[in-house]
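chain below, 418 aa
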Amino acid sequence: MLFIKKRSKIAVTAGLVAMAFASSVYAEVSLKQATEIQRSLLTLDTHLDTPANLVMPGFDIMQRHSYDHDFNQVDVPRMNDGALDGGFWAIYSPQGPLTEEGYQQSRDTAILRALAIHTMVTAHPDTFGFATEAAQAAPIKAAGKHVVFMSMENSYPLGNDISLLETFYKLGVRLAGPVHFKNNQLGDSSTDPDGPKWGGLSPLGEKFVAEANRLGIVLDGSHAGDETVKDMIRLSKTPIMLSHSGSKAVYAHPRNVDDELLKQLAATGGVIQMNAYSSYLKKLPADPKRNEAFKGFIAMMQQAESGEMTAADYDKMQQMRRKIEHDFPAVKATFEDYMEHFLHTLKVVGPEHVGIGADWDGGGGVEGMMDVASLPKITQRLLNEGYSKQDLANIWGLNALRVLQAADDYAKSLKTSK
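prediction:
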């Protein structure tokens, strides 16, 4: 009798294992299923550098482009393919010297970039909806349009006049970071070759935080040095965002964030949006010949950013880029490398504090995910890792909107308390 019971227990255990196996196979989500699930969610990427393309001669956001041909990664047809509803479209202007002349030139470029974003929306009113409040995003999606929030990457254009931040707020900016690749008048960058200058935020940078809070602008800590991010978390009255960053525990690059700082970010309600910039995801082999070939291309890019490029010049620049890619093809990180950062970060702070900011049209993209058409791969992988549809809803948009709402609520509370 004892022997029979033992056999029965083994049989039951084997049956449970078989059922679990069958269940796991059944639960595997296909890319098609993941895409449909993603379409049911509000999907936002918090760092789209695509406005840089809007000012290029011949670029049309409504037409399908190809990364292999013209290296663009975002347009309306591919947003539709990738079930991307929109996001934060970035104003970026290159940083020059910390002089009044440098500030003024950058300010003018930034304003023109903001106007280019507005022009995109007004030229295609059935395709885009401009948003300045978190609550506007869902109705824009429901109307079948793409969501356009506006952000500012690097607040160097403000110069020494923090009151200019209100001008950009009135233009629609709701997310702003103090620094980019180098230190500036507001604080320390994570990647300045000369190292820290201020030990975090500068005194002017502290005023920048207060003014952003007063206006209802979310503070963006991507590109900022760790001490700068800590200062932002400490001083800000509302949660901050890292609009396009990665995990330093996975790859110790200065642009990434360690687990301790991630926990500080999450403890104050903040979010990190996962970046897909290859050289921040893993160590890539050096290619001096490619770097040398790119010098001429970068010079042409700087000409384009100054607004002095003709359609013929732009075509010539693209031909140069295609030749470089043919002669010295880039080694990129893979989709699995990207997901390693993503999954680690989810384990550290949970799906209520993680989102997506892949740095499209700003250098982002990995093998297996080179434009926005491939975004459902993220949804597929997260679902198959066991994350729920609600987790995906948070990751794809609700977390970022929560932070935006908190900033707006705080700014309004200041007005009502007077």
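The longest helix spans residues 389-416. The radius of gyration is 23 Å.
thats it, cya
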